[in-house]
Amino acid sequence: MTVYFFNARYVDDCILIIRNDAIESVPNIFNSINKNIQFTFEIEFDENLPFLNFNIIRNENDFPSFDWYVNSSYSGRILNHFSYYDLHEKRSIVIGLIDKVFTLYDPKFRSKNLRFVRDTLIKNCYPSKFVNDIMKGRLKKLYYNYNSSTELVSHN
User: Fold this and answer.
1) Which of 144, 123, 13 lies closest to 75, judged by CA?
2) What DSSP state is assigned to residue 34?
3) Phi and psi for 20 in degrees, rounded to 5?
4) In sequence order, what E strands does the chain have?
5) Ramachandran region of residue 70, left (φ > 0), alpha (ψ -120 to 50) or beta?
6) pTM surpassing 0.90?
C-alpha cells in the first residue's frame, strides 16, 4: 500500500508528501530509528506547503504543482549590477533566474515569476534594457528548445 504521493531531497532537506491517514505513523517510524536524528513535519495550510524556495500546491487531483516561494526574511538582494564583476557573470545571473522559472516551476505561474525576476533584477540596479534583451533572447531559446523537443516526441 502506497503511503506517500511525492518525495524529494536536497542536501539535508527532505520532503515526503503523505496521505492524511499516515500523518501520525510515518514521523513516529522515522523518529524511532535513531534517537539522535529526529524528523519534524509540517501540515499544509490552504493546500500550500513551503519547501526551500518552492511553494508546493495541492491541486484538485492531489497532484502537486510548484510555484516560487520566498519567506518573510527574503531580502531580494542578489549581485548588484554596479558590483565589480564581469558583465558575463551578471548576464549568467539573469539567465539562471530565467531558467529557474522556466524549468522548476509550473507553467501556469511562469508570467508571475518572470515579473518577479525582472523586478528583483531592477531593484538590484540591473538596467531595464539589459534585463529585457537577455530575457527576450533566453525565452526565445527556451521556447524553441521546448517546442522542438515536444515535436520530436510527438512524431515518434
Assistant:
1) 123
2) -
3) -60, -35
4) 4-10, 13-18, 48-51, 54-58, 64-68
5) beta
6) no
* N- to C-terminal Cα separation, the chain: 35
**pLDDT: which is higher, 22 or 98:** 98
Share of the chain above pLDDT 90, in %: 51
Contact 48, 66 (CB under 8 A): no
Structural domain boundaries of the chain? Answer: 4-68, 87-155
Cα–Cα nearest to 90, from 99, 79, 76: 79
Residue bearing cell 517546442: 147
Residue 108 DSSP symbol: G
For residues 96 and 120, give the distance between their C-alpha atoms in angstroms, rounded to a whole number: 13
Q: How far is it, in rounded angstroms, from Cα 69 to Cα 112?
A: 12
Calculate mean pLDDT across residues 125-142.
95
Q: How many CA atoms lie within 13 A of 50 on its CB side?
A: 7
- pLDDT tens for residues 11-30? 888 888 777 788 888 888 88
- Would you state the cell numbers that stand for residue 28, as one nine-digit string? 513516529
The CA-based dihedral angle spanning residues 29, 31, 34, 36, taken in that order and rounded to the nearest 10 degrees? 180
